[in-house]
């Protein structure tokens, strides 16, 4: 089974927090989304829709609506991630149970993130203002124009999403502190539940549930991010969540591996076509699947970095 077809589709939904493609079918047809597999540690909310998300029962009662900036535990986690230096390890589990491990190191404006799953590795790196996206599965890189990667914790706080309690599991709440925030945009609802250690306040796990408002009985799709480690600090000395001190590992800030990859954006149309055809053979992406996804030779000559990696992660490799 080509398991990552569904995983890639769900990641596309995560990238827009229900503003666009959450209602798409999570199978082969979902390959229309261009940037599925990237940034699965975070989600983006359309700024124009952020105010729509502020409606709560508090507003109805005349009381000020509580938002993420009022949440004690999410703000504590947010402050950790605003440190000048931090390390984060977490595991992203898609709705079908497939895992991707994420490792991120931030040192001021420098950052490194690698995402590893059963197919392989991809990520981004920025050192002294020289930034790249890379994909070791496809063997390619490109110059990165996006900023520092963020977590869902940062997105929820910065968008001031409203506090809710519609989805909190009382059994979970007995052992962990739970804070819930909800985004509503158009016909979609995204409910995010954050679970924190009752003693340390450190985030343990957070889930994202996507639902379609009009569909009665819609159980939605749920993603889970399990936090393995957070270390934060400044001056090269980091404090782990167990109170122990550690030195920042700067060995990850080495961009020499980029030279071993192909500069995808520097390829001519003919070079892109030949490169893609070779990658598809290796990854076992069939001609029928490419046709189904709407890619003929002419379109492959103009294919983007996101489209190529999406096709490979959506259709490639039998797992």
TrEMBL record:
Start-end of Basic and acidic residues biased regions: 25-38
Keyword Signal assigned: yes
Compositional bias annotation for Low complexity: 42-53
Region Disordered, annotated ranges: 25-65
Recorded superkingdom: Bacteria
Signal peptide (residue range): 1-22
Protein name: Lipoprotein
The organism of origin for this protein: Ruminococcus albus 8
């Amino acid at each position: 089974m080509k398991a990552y077809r569904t995983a890639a589709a769900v990641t596309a939904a995560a990238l827009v927090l229900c503003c666009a493609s959450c209602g798409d079918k999570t199978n082969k047809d979902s390959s229309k989304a261009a940037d599925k597999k990237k940034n699965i540690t975070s989600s983006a909310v359309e700024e124009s829709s952020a105010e729509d998300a502020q409606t709560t029962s508090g507003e109805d009662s005349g009381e000020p609506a509580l938002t993420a900036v009022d949440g004690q535990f999410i703000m504590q986690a947010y402050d950790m991630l605003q440190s000048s230096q931090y390390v984060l390890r977490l595991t992203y589990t898609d709705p079908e149970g497939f895992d991707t491990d994420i490792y991120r190191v931030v040192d001021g404006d420098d950052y490194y993130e690698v995402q590893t799953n059963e197919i392989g590795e991809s990520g981004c790196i920025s050192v002294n203002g020289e930034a790249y996206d890379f994909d070791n599965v496809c063997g390619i890189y490109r110059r990165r124009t996006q900023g520092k990667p963020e977590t869902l914790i940062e997105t929820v706080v910065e968008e001031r999403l409203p506090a809710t309690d519609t989805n909190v599991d009382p059994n979970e709440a007995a052992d962990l502190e739970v804070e819930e925030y909800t985004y509503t945009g158009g016909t979609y609802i995204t409910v995010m539940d954050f679970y924190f250690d009752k003693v340390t306040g450190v985030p343990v796990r957070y889930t994202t549930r996507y639902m379609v408002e009009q569909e009665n009985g819609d159980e939605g799709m749920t993603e889970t991010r399990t936090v393995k480690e957070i270390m934060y600090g400044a001056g090269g000395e980091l404090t782990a969540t167990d109170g122990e001190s550690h030195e920042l590992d700067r060995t990850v800030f080495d961009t020499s591996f980029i030279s071993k990859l192909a500069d995808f954006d520097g390829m001519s149309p003919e070079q892109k076509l030949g490169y893609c055809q070779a990658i598809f053979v290796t990854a076992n992406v069939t001609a029928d699947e490419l046709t189904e996804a709407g890619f003929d030779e002419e379109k492959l000559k103009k294919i983007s970095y996101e489209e190529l990696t999406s096709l490979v992660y959506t259709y490639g490799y039998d797992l």
